[in-house]
Amino acid sequence: MGTLKKILLLEDDPILGETLVELLEINNFNVLWSKDGQNAADILFEKKFDLLLLDINVPYLNGFELLESLRSIDDNTPAIFITANADIESLKRGFDVGADDYLKKPFDFEELLIRIDALLKKNIIQTIVYKDLVFDTTTKKLTKNSTPIHLTPSEMNLFELFVTNQEKVFQTHELLEAANSQEFNAQTLRVWISKLKKIGLELTNIRGVGYRCEAV
According to a count of CB atoms within 10 Å of the terminal CB, is the N or C end of the chain lower? Predict the structure, then answer.
């Protein structure tokens, strides 16, 4: 069995929160439950999650404010609002601050599971996480601990090649071709490799052959 998907649940209703944790864990999710927005923000500063389930009307920092602050620092973790706020204005604001989905209480738990599954499948295609690096394959945006990382086009081509083909050994000529640069020489390649190591890729030099990105 693979690693359990991690969900942060923000819900201040003790009965609903306990029920959701139990049902999600039965369905093979690793759930961390927070009862107020500030506590959730503190947790998200320290930990990464695969999905956020956010109530809106919670103490200290509401769900809208929490998600808006996350999106402002390029944290694109998929998020679903689960809320009793059924008015159009709340729905609009939910999507405006960056929600991926919006589910009105009371809801059917099977429907929640379907929405979670669909969102996680979509996000797997778009996002690659490597240690503390998050790479959006659609926008080509790379962040480290939510801070944008800027690479040259050649470095970005190599980065994407390595993280999408972990454990595969690439020969030097393959890497030079992938870099798509006119600076086709081994010295420049070493500079690019050094930069990628510096930002956190674990690259191994296979002597006489090329390089491999170690899976983590």
Answer: N
